[in-house]
Each structure stands twice: as C-alpha cells, then as structure tokens.
Amino acid sequence: MTTIRIATADESLRAVVTARRSLRYAGGSDDHTDRPAHVRAASSLAWIDDQIALVQDDTNFVALVDPQGGDVRSVALPRGEGGVRQFDDTRGNKRYKLDLEACVSVYDQHGPALLAFGSGSTQRRRQVATIDRWHLATPRVQVADATSLYKRLEAERAFAGSDMNIEGVIVVENVLRFFGRGNGTARGDLIAVNATCDVPLDALREFLRNPTSATPPDPTDIVQYQLGALDGIALGFTDATVFGETMLYSATAEASANATVDGPVTGSVLGTISPRGIVRYAALTDETGLPFREKVEGVLLSRTLPRHAYIVIDGDDATRPSELCDVELIGSWTD
User: H or E element: which one contains 312?
Assistant: First the structure.
C-alpha cells in the first residue's frame, strides 16, 4: 500500500520574496564554448562550499554563483548533439538537451561532488552528470548514461505515474530521495503523480562509476503527495532541500499538457514535509503581499541568514536571464 500525504495551505506561514537578481556570467557570452551571456532555464540549486551551483535544463553548463557578491562563472559540461551546448526551439535542437532538473551535493574524501540528474521525461533525458575536484582550475566532469536506473524508477508506477519527471533530489542520512513532478498526461489507468522514492546513496554512486554493466539500486519507500492548487491549477514539485529534520520543497502551478511542454504559470509555493509526514505550504508573495507569479524551479536554504532561502526562477524564455531570489520564511516552518 502506497503512502499518500495531503498538503494543506497554512495561513500562519509566509514566504516573501525580498530581492531578485538577474544571473549574467561575469565573462559575458563565449562563442568558443557556446556559452550564452546569461544563465537560462535554471532548474536546481546546491551548495558547493560557499558557492551556489546551479544546473540548467537547456544548456550544458553548471553556473557557480557567489551569493554575497553576485558574481557568476561557469563550468562547461560536454558538448551535445552537433557539438553545441545550447538547445532550444530557435536552434531547432531542443529534443537533444540533457534536461538537467535536479542536483545535490555529496561529500567524500575528495570534497564535494555535484550530482545532476536529467528529468527522465524522454529517453534522451536519462543521463547523470558528476562534477567534482572543485579545488582544481577546471573541475572534473563525468556524464553517465543512466538509462537502466531510470527504467528501474519508471517501473515503479507508484513513483513514476503516467509520465515520469524527476525535478528534485536530496540526501537524507544514507539515502538519495528523488522528487517526481506530477505534470504529465494520463495514460490508460495511470495518472501523473507527485511522489518521492529512496535509493541507497552508496549503491547509487557505485552504479554511476560503471553504469553500462552495474545493476542500478532498487527504489524503496515510495510516498505520493497531493500538493493542492493555485487558481485551479495543480501544484507539482520543482525542487527540494533539507531543512534540519524537515524537507523544504518548491512547487509550481503550471498548466502544461505533459512533462515536456511548458504552459501558463499561476504561481509557486514553498512547503515543508515534517518527520511525521505533515505537509504544509504557503504561496510565494512579494513584499507588498501580492502573489509571486513566476515559475520557481529551485530552492536552497541560506547559510548566513536564519529563516531565509534562495529560489531560482525560469521564465521559459531563452533570451531572459534566470533570476536568483531571496526569500524570507515567516512563521514556524520546522514545526
């Protein structure tokens, strides 16, 4: 029997966007590496030492953001189809993008490593990038075809639903927890679901070292979530992070036809999942109390300010820089 948890809007909680900054690379555009002038299609956040690593779903770069000074530099991922690193409708190559939608930092004797996961929403989007050796001038980058892992996740219909779309990942003790977004199209008796599942972290890292021959770890502890709606549009997970013993998640209300198509957005929320499984959320607002209507794709707690978080927004427009926003969390978010 799959556990189902129901989120409730909590009027005692507030999530207030207090600052917004456009993310532009310090060096501007670079034709040699096929880097645009700005971060675009930002999708997930993780700490790498005192910098924020940010993955993007349609460019083969990881952005490193200094949250204090605002400087943004890049780490190039391998070139994709046609030798390029940008993928969009204008170029006509969007179907070839990695679609990196979730990332998390893990640590070993060599320091932090960033694991970045494709959404899995198509066969091409089932790769996992590992970036480590951050102390070097050029960090080490490895991209693994993790098709067998995604097939194993997809086989768990209680997690994958009708249209698997992985949007977030966190580390909880010794497991990696995936967050799947339920914005897909129903297929037969299968519907799209917001859900989480766990895989052993050590087993996953061992699999990523040799994904062509190693057996992927089995997913366990599947939980489904009914996240509520904004203006009649269902909310779906877009990212998550650890908040003490609580999980903090972002979710967006987007009227999309399926997991690969963008749609109108009515707003976003931040929510918490307590150790007891209680799920509460608050709609994001600006400082005047008006709804914050942007598409939130990533969330990360501040390391310097208590009860503050960062979110990143994606306007689904390749010409528009993604924005890193400061959010004040008002109320008892960890109760």
Answer: strand 308-313
Report which of 321, 324, 223, 230 is spatially closest to residue 284, judged by C-alpha positions.
230
Q: Which pTM was predicted?
A: 0.95
Structural contact between residues 100 and 87, judged by C-beta atoms closer than 8 angstroms: no
Distance CA 335, CA 332 (A): 6
State in Å, rounded, how far the first CA of the chain is from the last one. Answer: 27
Query: Does residue 43 sit in helix, strand or coil?
Result: strand
**82 SS3 class:** helix
Nearest-CA neighbor of 235 among 207, 212, 211, 256?
A: 256
Per-residue pLDDT reduced to its tens digit, 169-204: 999 999 999 999 998 788 888 999 999 999 999 999
One-character DSSP codes across 89-106: TTTT-GGG---EEEEEEE
